[in-house]
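2024-03-11 09:14:02 INFO worker-7 job=invfold-0412 stage=load source=structure_tokens
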């Protein structure tokens, strides 16, 4: 999969959602060899395909997965996606991206698994460096969670 994402790049956009769901499911395998391959494929997917499709694939495939390893792989991929797209573009660009990304990271920031929380909180910390972060949290996160999320934004 990593080779396909590397060489076909945006031509793989139509397959991203199915591939992400499959890869995230395989991330829960106990075999280290398989998990490393999955992580390579997910990071290549984040780098090579269109961000909107990647985001939708990650959200559909892993945010509510029962396996904490799969949720951790999702959270790590979301951090990488944020680094590729850029904080400024997420917060000031298309509203559909931010309206999906910020609630997803906010949900994962309070996950039961430590790895998931660590990656999600790293994404929130990256977002907190931008002046529009608090306004975006107020706009896209549920009212009951806003104060806790704002505390996690690094300033």
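2024-03-11 09:14:09 INFO worker-7 stage=emit residues=155
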């Amino acid at each position: 999969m990593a080779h396909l994402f590397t060489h076909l790049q945006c031509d793989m956009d139509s397959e991203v959602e199915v591939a992400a769901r499959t890869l995230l499911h395989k991330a829960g395998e106990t075999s280290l060899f398989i998990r490393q391959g999955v992580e390579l494929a997910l990071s290549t997917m984040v780098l090579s395909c269109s961000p909107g499709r990647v985001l939708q694939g990650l959200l559909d495939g892993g945010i509510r997965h029962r396996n904490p390893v799969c949720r951790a792989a999702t959270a790590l991929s979301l951090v990488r996606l944020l680094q590729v797209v850029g904080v400024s573009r997420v917060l000031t660009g298309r509203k559909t991206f931010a309206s999906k990304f910020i609630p997803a990271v906010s949900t994962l920031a309070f996950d039961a698994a430590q790895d998931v929380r660590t990656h999600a909180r790293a994404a929130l910390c990256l977002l907190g460096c931008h002046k529009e972060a608090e306004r975006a949290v107020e706009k896209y996160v549920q009212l009951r969670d806003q104060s806790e999320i704002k505390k996690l934004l690094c300033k």
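2024-03-11 09:14:09 INFO worker-7 stage=report msg="Residues 2-152 form a domain with the Leucine-rich Repeat Variant fold (CATH 1.25.10.10)."
2024-03-11 09:14:10 INFO worker-7 job finished
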